Amino acid sequence: MSQRGRTPKERGYRRSVLVGTATLLCEFAVLAVLARHVLRARENLGGGPHLSPPAVLVLPLLVPLCVLLTVCFALPALVVAEAVGRESWPWVLLIATGIGAVPFGTPGGFAAGAAGAVTATLVAGCVLGVAALAGRAARRRVRATSARRALGRTLGAGALAVALTVLLGHGAYATGLVTPYAPPRLGPGATLHGLWQHESGALLKLDPDGRALAVGLGAPQHRGCGGRGTWRLHRGENTWQQRVRVDIAACGAVQLWSVLGTEEHPKLYRTSGDPDSPDVYTLDKY
Predict the structure, then answer these.
(1) 157-172 pLDDT tens trace
(2) pTM for this structure?
(3) What are residue 229's phi and psi, to 5 degrees?
(4) Is 85 helix (H, G, I), strand (E, B) or coil?
(5) What is the DSSP track for 165-176?
(6) Which residues neighbour 177 within 8 Å (Cβ) at sequence distance 6 or greater?
(7) DSSP assignment of 95-153
(8) For tag attachment on the chain, is the N or C end more exposed, with fewer CB atoms within 10 Å?
């Protein structure tokens, strides 16, 4: 059926799907930028999170996912709101939250308990609710605005929201309002000397005189190695470049351990496998 042959109601719901999908794409972009800013302040393996090649390849899948979310969750929220006569934006958000509680709150509960379930439900409700409200606005203006113009307005507003999120995040770090994460500075002393333990029970002991002892160490390609050797601290130009060089013959090649954690709870770690998604072997100060 051609565009002219469709009734205003049919065009309205099709327009809701189009604009709702575009809104969800923009919301995901804003959330991704926001998450990057937040994670930059948390413990990470090297200057903050980044988009790896596998993550970039997944981006095209967001379009069909957003269509599915719009059709299965955002539009039903509108239909329910109209059916019960509660079409104001607070009610649409509330209904969207209720619809998204089971499919999105349940996985959050399994991952992080009750707090995770509540957080996932509220975030899903807001995201779906905003998409539903955008779709409703587009449907009401279906006679006055073309589909291309409605899509352009949505994507333009989304691009502006992403740009503002980027600027606000960088501004927060530039002004010192938020401090990016950096590993603690380890010097020869109590913070470095002593026992370092893996969750499996493996131990690495660093003595003040430069001697090292490994017990069941599996970091990461030499499983269960143990024996005596030596260690040395390379301070580097900054805390990211600190390395603890451990040379134990029974463990094969010289091991270079990097630093994580905080001054109160320092950690040593090594990585192996895919650089974009490495396996991390961590030792906590005992």
Answers:
(1) 999 999 999 999 999 9
(2) 0.75
(3) -170, -145
(4) coil
(5) HHHHHHHHHHTT
(6) 171
(7) HHHHHHIIIIIHHHHHHHHHHHHHHHHHHHHHHHHHHHHHHHHHHHTTTTS-HHHHHHH
(8) N
